[in-house]
Amino acid sequence: MATRDSREVVIEASPEEILDVIADVESAPEWSSQHQGAEVLDRDANGRPGKVRLKLKTMGISDEQVVQYSWTDTGASWTLLESSQLKTQSATYTLTPEGDTTRVRFEITVDPAVPIPGFVLKRAMKGGLEAATDGLRKQVLKREKG
């Protein structure tokens, strides 16, 4: 059964600066404990990642996924193409400028391929949401101080 959750964070940066960090998928292991590696398989016309192979580990479960990214001026999203642990996954970053800051909303839906106890799935989702928001915020601010 698919599980969906979301989280918001305000980052002291422009949407463009935040999207640049999201687009640097190879650096995701630096700010997301779940990411063990990332490889861009192809890029879109603007040079942003299109198809990406990810190595992930959460709650002791390892997975290698292939996802397809889509980009707009105010967000990024991906959908799962291949995985050994999930039937489906989709995620979206929506960026809303608020003066000198940007509100970032991250939403994710996952459907495990095998039964996972609810509390394990909930903890894994929480860790993913924290990495996707708090981890992203720390990486953006780190780059700004650069």
TrEMBL record:
Transmembrane segments: none annotated. CDD domains: SRPBCC_2. InterPro entries: Polyketide_cyclase/dehydratase, START-like_dom_sf. This is Polyketide cyclase / dehydrase and lipid transport family protein.
